[in-house]
Design goal:
It is a single chain. With 379 residues, the protein is of the alpha/beta class. It has a single domain, classed as Glycosidases (TIM Barrel, Alpha-Beta Barrel). The chain is 38% helix and 16% strand. It has a seven-stranded mixed β-sheet. It has a two-stranded antiparallel sheet with strand order 8-9. Helix 5 links the parallel strand 3 and strand 4.
Length: 379
Amino acid sequence: MRSSHISVSLIIIIVLLYLIIAVLSADKYSRNDFPTGFVFGSGTTAYQVEGAANEDGRTPSVWDTFAHSGYTNGANGDVAVDQYHKYKEDVKLMAEMGLDAYRFSISWSRLIPGIQPHVTLTNTDFPQALEDEKDFTVYADACFREFGDRVSHWITINEANIFAVGGYDQGIVPPRHCSSPFGINCTKGNSQSEPYIAVHNMLLAHASAAKLYKKKYQEKQNGSIGISIYTFGAIPYTNSTQDEMAAQRMNDFYIGWIASPLVFGDYPDTMKKNVGSRLPTFTDQESELVRGSFDFLGVIHYTTLYVQDNPGSLELKQRDFNIDAAATIMNLDDPDLKRQPKLSSYWSSHFLKGGSLSPHHFIQLKNNFSATSNARFRQ
């Protein structure tokens, strides 16, 4: 049995493939396929689309530093799709597409004074000068004050879980912290502990901003505030109890890592058991601050993956987030799916058709563990 720990790089590739699938499959669905009240929209992040990197007083973010340091083969967001200058055209296109909402992030390093705006306060592009500072609540206050009369939904932090793993474990995105043997050519960081510290601080930052909004702005502006979580459907590789428990652990590590503190004020029991002293603890005051600090929970679901139990990983002396989960995301060679090349959009689309989660798939949180309900793979 071959095992390997989770690769954020693999997940990013899969995400891109699913964007392709979404385009190819667009003519198969209509608004009638979605329930009443479902908000149908699209989303971007500032650095990926704005451009205008040096205009109107913008200062470098950690992504500017990362992209111009030779880690992206010359690619950068200096121009991107130039939404900073073409936002009116883009909004017009969104209206023509029939979108209800547009989730975008405000560039923290450029705070500037129809479609329902869903605003993300930060999507990993925080200012380089503030990487080690504690000014998130001050920044959030400025956003609430300047834009709150026009924003109905605030998302404090987007995909904190995947940002922590990519930025503080594997070192493949800013601020590029990692340590051997988990990252590649990193000059600083500790993959065994920093991802957990990063998420802990992001949860406290979120809760602080949410508390401020609810106390100072919500009644007057009549908006709501939440946080979004990166998720994928974790399906047991076999029907064995071990693989079912592995899928549960994967849910705890990816979903419960963020959601459980928000609902219960503490991390999932499986994480506390596997991670041990490397997992930060909440004081009673912090637990009270974080618990219930949201009006809504954004669930970003990209794909569905097979998960297999890997108990031997817990015997390793050096462990990072991926190994702590004691579960392996399987890279299958299924001859019935004509997988050429591997991870192709053709294979992914057939995987979704033949093996997707139930249409009633949703997140459950109960007794301090997380689960994706009705997660049954159709053979």
